[in-house]
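I'll show one example:
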Amino acid sequence: MTRYVSSCFITLLVLFLWRVEDIAEACKCSPPHPQQAFCDADIVIRAKVVGKKALSNEIKYDIQQIKMFKCPNQVIHAIYTASSPAACGVTLEINKEYLFTGKLETGRMHVTLCGYNPPWEDVSAAQKNGLTRLYKSGCDCKIIHCNSLPCPISTTDACLWMDWGTNNGQNLACIKSNGSCAWK
């Protein structure tokens, strides 16, 4: 009987260790540059959160859309996010305005921690200018985030983003001019 119990224990331990990587998965991503988030998003809007409802595996935030920066001409009344930050879900405050960059999936807007969804009050004047004028013209460029030196860049259609501990680079836009991309 002891060998049977021991065998069951070892089997359970092996199964647990095999699945521990899946259990320990958490949201992993680097914060994107505002322009890259704009270009990668299906929808970019300024909106006020007016309600919240927990669904089975996600949270639905009711919103009042204030301004549309990028979207296939539709009004968004709600955004959806995963139910926890570990699953890349965004936590929002009721009666607060945000800039949302998200994906359109089956007619619904989804946002994640891997997107760019700051409170509107934290969006700088330069970023607001980028949203209305510059970012769209720079979507042919790729912004490469450099975390440590050396940061090789071997293409003319990219800008190197080395914003170590500052937010200065978030106020710039990467724009293509004369066949190559550069910070503006």
About this structure: The radius of gyration is 21 Å.
